[in-house]
Amino acid sequence: ILVTARPQIPHWLDTSRDDVRIVHHDEFFDPGDLPTFNSFAIVGNLYKLPGVSRRFLYLEDDRLLMRDVVPSDFIAPDGRIRIWVKLQATNAAADRDDASRSPWEGALAWSNHLLDERYGRQRRGSVKQSPLFFDRALFAEFASQWPEELRRTSASRFRDRCNLVPEHIFPHWLLHEGKGVKVPLWQVYRDVSYLGCENFTPVDFFGLLNLRLRRPKWCALNDNFGERPNPRAVRMIQRFLERIYPRASRFERR
Fold it and tell me: Could you give the C-alpha distances from 45 to 131, 178, 249, in angstroms and in order?
């Protein structure tokens, strides 16, 4: 399933295949909340996707699968969802009143504030670099806990410091409620990686070398080039991707 706004259908997607479906925002959003440019709002409504299975894997467009991924990566033997938490701390609740914070940081702080109110103040690690495993029934239960906050998030056209970050607060809610279990740290740092693609080629070179040697299960490859990408850096990233993925996907342009 590809979730998209109606004017943004990728020209390279083979929509004639039976196993591919484009779902537009107006198929699962409140009409009054559209158009939206807010990823928090989109993620917060994914559990309403028509025709999707109860459990599914949510991947953003900067996530790469670099090794085989199996259901046991996301579901523990007892049926609980496995949560991939890094040591990197997220913004504490006090940051929600700091106007210098970005909407992303402010929303993380607001999400942690809500968790602190319910479960006590504590430091919460980052889960943003790994795929998000959804259970629609559990997310609906989660949504019932903070309906006003989710409603306000859904109605925000753009990210706002008073939004929820569903891909952060939902996994931590699962942990607090005993419906999720943390993946061991050694496994998190073995299988989850992040690389910011910069215009400074030495940084890219050693970052890509680390990925080639480690081959994590998945990686967040973030575009930090800005408006004037360094052509040498772009070529380096392109060669890396062509080496890791030598066969074209059926969705790619030939």
Answer: 17, 23, 28
